[in-house]
UniProtKB/TrEMBL annotation:
GO molecular function terms attached to this record: DNA binding; DNA-binding transcription factor activity
InterPro entries membership: HTH_MarR-typ (IPR000835), MarR/SlyA-like (IPR039422), Transc_reg_Sar_Rot_HTH (IPR055166), WH-like_DNA-bd_sf (IPR036388), WH_DNA-bd_sf (IPR036390)
A cellular component term, taken from the record's GO annotations: cytoplasm
Organism, scientific name: Ferrimonas marina
Domain HTH marR-type: 16-146
Protein known as: DNA-binding transcriptional regulator, MarR family
Pfam family, one: Staph_reg_Sar_Rot
Main location: cytoplasm
Protein location: Cytoplasm
């Protein structure tokens, strides 16, 4: 993707002028690359990231989990039901507020963490970027996410030439 394309000096609707397409394609490629690593544990990528949050916290309510993972309840609820069916998590009502659903790990869910310890290193090897490149990619991805998240800065409307917002 050239700077010339980003600054609107060529057709702004060319696919190679877009930043969204390589991001979309890379996200899909990452998910596909995780598939064989997670298959032996019978987990999908989304189930894996839910488990990572639970390994950090032990217990979390569904609303907080959805906010942290940027997943809506329509995606999260069936995913959590499948993890519960695999005996990795337990869904229960909060003792302090029965309207709130809390998710916690089972013993089997806790034990899975040690079994999956090699997954991040295997992915890092698969990506074949330097540590510095990985850290920069993570930093820029987090910056982009925070700017585009619902609670991020307002998006400036682009009127006319996109060059106005790229300077």
């Amino acid at each position: 993707m050239s700077t010339e394309n980003l600054q609107g000096k060529s057709d702004p609707l060319r696919l190679d002028s877009q930043i969204c397409f390589p991001l979309y394609s890379a996200a899909n490629a990452v998910t596909r690359a995780y598939r064989p690593l997670l298959k032996e544990f019978d987990l999908t990528y989304l189930q894996y990231i839910v488990m990572m949050v639970l390994w950090e916290r032990q217990r979390v309510n569904v609303k907080t989990l959805g906010e942290e993972l940027h997943l809506d309840s329509g995606t999260l609820t069936p995913l959590l039901k499948r993890l519960e069916a695999k005996a990795l998590v337990v869904r229960q009502r909060s003792e302090s507020d029965e309207r709130v659903r809390e998710i916690s790990l089972t013993d089997e869910g806790r034990a899975l963490k040690a079994k999956m310890a090699q997954v991040p290193a295997a992915m890092a090897c698969r990506v074949a970027l330097s540590v510095e490149e990985l850290m920069e990619l993570k930093r820029l991805s987090q910056k982009l996410l925070s700017q585009l998240a619902d609670n991020g800065p307002a998006i400036r409307p682009v009127v006319g030439d996109a060059e106005n917002c790229l300077t």
